[in-house]
Specification:
Layout (H helix, E strand, L loop, with lengths): L11 H4 L3 H19 L10 E2 L5 H4 L1 E2 L3 H7 L4 H19 L2 H11 L3 H27 L3
Antiparallel strand pairs: 1-2
Length: about 140
């Protein structure tokens, strides 16, 4: 017992020493809890025979029944193949484009042209993003 190091006792006044820093951290912690941990409870719907009338907690538990039904369906392999094809295609075509664009901008000699091209592409990106959000909320 002689070789053991004794740790100091945390006194009450030391707990309150950095309370302002904890209060600054509080909104971030609340946001993480609400938007990252709260939705995890909704994952239960996949394992329940969900009824909107009964809610998540009142619906009957069915276990892996829905997953087995999906895996045994006639179009499972087609859906899986489409998903993998789309994911790999997006990865192959979207990953190198920013690097190619950066090399292209680096080759432009006058700074004015670089700034103009960057601004135009950013403008196009914002407009397309807005159009996508409007289309998602108000589909035609």
């Amino acid at each position: 017992m002689k070789g053991r190091k004794k740790y100091p006792v945390v006194r009450a006044r030391h707990k309150w020493k950095n309370m302002d820093l904890f209060l600054l951290l509080l909104p971030a912690m609340i946001q993480v809890i609400i938007f990252r941990y709260w939705p995890i409870a909704g994952i239960q719907i996949a394992f329940k025979n969900f009824s909107a009338r009964k809610g998540i907690w009142g619906s009957a538990w069915v276990g892996l029944k829905h997953f087995i039904t999906f895996f045994n369906s006639y179009n499972f392999w087609e859906v899986l193949g489409n998903t993998l094809t789309l994911s790999l295609t997006m990865l192959l075509f979207s990953f190198p484009i920013p690097f190619i664009f950066a090399l292209f901008l680096n080759r432009l000699s006058p700074r004015f042209k670089k700034v103009l091209v960057q601004a135009l592409l950013r403008y196009i990106h914002i407009i397309l993003h807005i159009m996508h959000k409007i289309n998602a909320h108000f589909p035609f």
